[in-house]
């Protein structure tokens, strides 16, 4: 058993004991009074990203949501927001270099390049005993796959607390249900079903603008971003790693990939996909779907209530309706994206601050049932009301739309991670039944990932052109584009690509990946 697995096994064993004791006391998790909040408010400073949320970018020191969170948790909270994306990376790197750090810091991993060597240098508090003593809710509610990640643990010790993404899996196939209804067709289940739908879309003026040639069955985005459909059905998905004959290898070099590429070329030759698929930028892609140019696309279930599921989103079509469905079944596989560890980011506690106990107590409260209503619906009588004993919350109400305030309490200051799809939100959100069904569908669209928990390989850090997947500038995407558009033959081009990939360093990449796999799984 690996060290990280031993660390989680220890935590999980205590979790079972805690759960049993709690069940005997009525099944409730430990709340603020149990974790020390009753002794009087303690101070806790927190450094994080504003997550590109408008409200967080403009938040004031006396913000009502931070005040309410402090009151509920029994902790005097002080948040400091850095930028997002590359800005956050640069800013946090500077903060670590200066050693000017608060009590809780958001990072992407305990081994992040923003603070190289921090674990070995004793920068971070060993949280293992503190979680055992003060974190029963953390142990009970954060899934095993997250604790098992090297992003939070090293040598059997836990140095970080995982904050989770909105869902374990979020990608679904979106399809224009109103187009299916108009054509008298059922939702597609097999590859042949999809092709029949695409052919019907090609022949008919589905968006009703008088031009039968401006709709496409499958609407694709540049670099195949949110467009990696019709790969796993043939047994190989380019972003996924597979253990084959004792070696951990990327899906993009598997022989089965040839059949997937041939299928894509057929889509292109028959006009089933947009001819600008390799240059269709995100904004243009979304605008095209809004204008009724796509019958099928893939994206996150989390966006259902913000664009795809709103009839008014489709500017020129009355009665537009979408469904969220599974990938094609009946082939050599299925799914849209490899399984992940669900870690959105990681909390670390600088040891020199000597305030890790309060941080764990706060996080333990944040993961309690008591905290659900705030992180889902905000402040009672401000963001939601109670009517006939049930909460009434409207994401489009003025208080929640104010600079996207709901994003602030569900995401920006939510120490659990992204709470926009937590069960409490799904219970009160518009289109609740559709969202819950979409979540179930997304879970079915996950691909088994033999490289789960694998860190970025050293052999790939300086060779972006060899990175598995469809990133811009990769050898794979270059070959794929040439074959799909008819510039090269699939058999010769694919074989040449695999040979070149291995020659440039692919063999070393496979060796490093395999060594990691064997070490992690103690083979």
In short:
By secondary structure, this protein is an alpha/beta fold. Helix content is 39%, strand content 14%.
Verbal overview:
The chain is built from 20 helices and 17 strands. The chain is an alpha/beta fold. Helix 19 runs antiparallel to helix 20. The strands form 6 sheets. Strands 2-1-3-14-6 form a 5-stranded mixed sheet. The model is unreliable at 1-28 and 30-38 (pLDDT under 50).
Could you outline the blueprint of secondary structure elements for this entry?
Layout: H1 3-24, E1 42-49, H2 54-57, H3 64-73, E2 75-82, H4 86-98, E3 104-107, H5 128-134, H6 136-141, H7 144-147, E4 153-154, E5 157-158, E6 161-164, E7 171-176, H8 177-183, H9 191-203, E8 216-218, E9 241-244, E10 247-250, H10 257-269, H11 282-290, E11 294-300, H12 304-308, E12 322-325, E13 337-338, E14 343-348, H13 356-366, H14 372-377, E15 384-387, E16 390-393, H15 398-401, H16 405-412, H17 423-428, H18 432-444, E17 446-447, H19 475-484, H20 490-520
Parallel strand pairs: 1-2, 1-3, 8-11, 13-17
Antiparallel strand pairs: 3-14, 4-5, 6-14, 7-11, 7-12, 9-10, 15-16
Helix pairs in contact: 19-20
